[in-house]
Design a protein that fits this description.
The chain is an alpha/beta fold and 260 residues long. The protein has a domain of 175 residues: P-loop containing nucleotide triphosphate hydrolases (Rossmann fold, 3-Layer(aba) Sandwich). It has 8 helices and 9 strands. Helix 5 runs parallel beside helix 6 and helix 7 packs across helix 8. The radius of gyration is 19 Å and the shape is globular. The mean pLDDT is 83.
C-alpha cells in the first residue's frame, strides 16, 4: 500500500460483477453501474458527472450506505427513514478503505435534505438537552435549518457541521446554491481539504467541478472515463453558451420542436 493510499480514507469502490443477478434490471442497468468495475478515488476530491439518469446519484447513495450512512442523508447517527427507496446496489459493492479512519462522515443528498433538517428538530424535541445529551442544532449553526432559505441551510451545513478530517459524500450540492454561493462553496471545500478531508461529489455544476487537481469521472452508457476539467461537456457547453450566447440562442430558438 502506497503512502498516498494509506493516508486517504476511501481508496476505491469495486462492483462485485460476478454477483450481479442481471445487468438488464435496475439498478444494474443504469449506465454508471453497468460500466463500473473498480473506481479509484482521489485522496481529496473526486467528481462524478453525467447526464440525468446516468446513475451517479444511485452510485453515490450506495457508497454512502456501504459506509453505514443513512440513505436519506446525515451521519452514521441518523437512522430515520421517511420512505425506504434506496437501491440494493450497496450489497454489491466492496469498498477499500485506508489505514486511517475519518473523524467525521456525512452524506448530503440534496433532494432529501428537508427530511434531515426535520429529523434534527425531532431529535432535539424528543428528549430534554443535558450535559450527556447535548442538543444537535448548535452543531449546524444554532438556527433551525427550516428557518433559513434552502441555500443558506446548505451553507450552514458546510460551514458549521463539516469540521474537517472527514469523508463527505455530496449529491448535487449546487441544487440550492446561486453561482456566487457555489464559488463560496469552493472556498469552503478548499478549507476542508486543507484540514485533511476527502470528498466524493456528484454534480452538474461547471463552477464546482473546477476545483483544481480533482479527478472528474464521466459516467456514460458504456464506460467510466476520467477527463480533465476543460474536456468535459459541462465546461465546453457552458463556455460556448457564455462566449457565443446570441449565436447559441439563435440556434436554440430556431430549432425544430422536439429537437431538444
Amino acid at each position: 500500500m502506497s503512502s498516498l493510499t494509506a493516508e486517504q480514507f476511501l481508496v476505491h469502490v469495486q462492483l462485485l460483477r460476478d454477483r450481479v443477478p442481471s445487468f438488464e434490471k435496475y439498478p444494474f442497468a443504469l449506465p454508471a453501474v453497468r460500466a463500473l468495475d473498480t473506481l479509484t478515488l482521489h485522496p481529496h476530491v473526486t467528481f462524478l458527472i453525467g447526464e440525468n439518469g446516468s446513475g451517479k446519484s444511485t452510485l453515490i447513495e450506495a457508497i454512502a450506505v456501504s459506509l453505514g450512512l443513512n440513505p436519506e442523508g446525515g451521519s452514521r447517527n441518523f437512522n430515520f427513514s421517511t420512505r425506504s427507496s434506496h437501491s440494493p446496489l450497496s450489497d454489491f459493492l466492496r469498498l477499500r478503505q485506508g489505514i486511517r479512519r475519518p473523524r467525521d462522515c456525512w452524506f448530503l443528498r440534496a433532494e432529501s435534505f428537508f427530511n434531515v433538517a426535520t429529523e434534527i428538530e425531532n431529535l432535539d424535541a424528543s428528549s430534554p438537552p443535558s450535559r450527556d445529551n447535548p442538543p444537535i442544532a448548535p452543531a449546524y449553526g444554532g438556527a433551525s435549518l427550516h428557518e433559513q432559505s434552502h441555500g443558506e441551510s446548505f451553507f450552514s451545513l458546510f460551514r458549521n457541521r463539516f469540521r474537517g478530517r472527514g469523508l463527505y459524500l455530496l449529491d448535487e450540492p449546487e441544487a440550492a446554491l446561486s453561482p456566487m454561493r457555489q464559488m463560496s462553496f469552493l472556498s469552503r471545500l478548499h478549507d476542508l481539504v486543507r484540514n485533511d478531508s476527502q470528498f466524493i461529489i456528484a454534480t452538474h455544476s461547471p463552477i464546482i467541478m473546477a476545483y483544481p487537481n480533482a479527478w472528474i469521472y464521466v459516467l456514460s452508457g458504456s464506460e467510466i472515463v476520467r477527463l480533465p476539467y476543460k474536456e468535459t461537456e459541462h465546461y465546453r457547453v457552458t463556455r460556448d453558451f457564455l462566449t457565443r450566447s446570441e449565436k447559441m440562442l439563435s440556434i436554440l430558438m430556431d430549432a425544430q420542436p422536439g429537437l431538444f
